[in-house]
Records
---
Amino acid sequence: MTKKNLLPANLDPRNPSYSYKKKENDPVENSHQFNQYIKQIKFNKVFTGTLWAEGPAYIPHLDTLVWSDIPNNRMLKLYKNKVSEYRNPSNYCNGNTIDNEENVISCSHGGRCIYKTNDKLEVSILVDSFNGKKFNSPNDIFVKSDGTIWFTDPPYGILSDYEGYIGKQEYNGCYVFSFDPATNKLKVVIDDLVRPNGITLSPDECKLYVSDTGKDLKHLYVYDLIEGRPTNRKLIYDFKPFFSDGFRCDKDGNIWTSAGKAIKCFNTQNELIGQLVVPELVSNLEFGGKDGNILYVTATTSLYSIELNQQGAKFYE
């Protein structure tokens, strides 16, 4: 069941936003390129009432956005400007995306697994172990054009009962995995990050972006994908004192990422080109809307949106 009597986000030290209450982003001078993408400056607050909103995913054929409210053990949906519950309980789902058939693919902290949810809200487990051992707590996720599912596996969902259930790490690491549901084959694709967190892919599927949010590490990295293997890791940005939690690429390959109480945007040369300030600590974001130019932002207690003169990568090329 959904947890009851949880403290407000700003009063609970377990909430990811708690330590950042008094921190603000340094200003950034937006470039001409970035300003061309900006249609409006102020974010619209679509909904408030979550404790730690995460994992927005847009489902084009339903014109619906779903996202997680992890401490409240539920998922919400936005359809025709109305918000309602999508799954309750969700088993502490965090990151979400869609597969090539537009089923919702979710990282479950509670189940320590990857779920698939179809339009009838029928839920199935796709994968829940590595070499016979439980995952830590799958965190963020994307699906390639070949149908493989890539996800990160830090331990945040098993460190306390706030975003999952207290548990032990069983395989003695924090890896990035790829899983092929057609063959049930699971691969380790990155094994040398401290706390792999956010993950996404460039529009041409030649670049892999992964953040590491380990202690004293608040990095966003880019890898070349060569024959399906991440190589040539490069640091894009050090986000301290904040962190890069979740991100997406637009159709031109620029990456838009959570960055404290803001969204930062980097071009394909890994240069910071602009920033949009958000009223709360941001966790993640997603491009959606029928034209793919609505940027949805999950930020602690709320869902925000802003209309852009730019489209997201995956469905609007």
---
Amino acid sequence: MQSSGISPWILLIALSATVASFAQVLLKKSAMEPHANVIKEYLNWKVVFGYLLMFAGMFLTIIAYAKGVQYKNGPIMESIGNIWVVILSFIFFREPVTKKKVIGNLLILAGIAVFYLNWSKLLPVLSFMDTDWGTIFGSLAG
């Protein structure tokens, strides 16, 4: 059964996705700039700091998993990075926020909400939705 609350360690994975999104912005900013030579292309503050942020994001995810976050939660919370991409692309690159991007982000948020919803409290007949699917499929296989 899923618990009714979201663990702060799961939120750490969401923070990891946010950090990684900022790292991607720095790396794209650097890639869009002209560089005097190949060394300066790869050894400038934006690239170095971008990769440090990527490492920090990965480290936060590892900590969250070490604290007991189930692997099924990772991809759900990592999808928050897609939301950040739209926001940061608008802020830093002036990319338009289109209707499709808004709908896509709303679907991501709805998917996260549905995944963490306590179905049995909403409607008792849907209590089967609270079951750990790995347990169901594991019992069918064995």
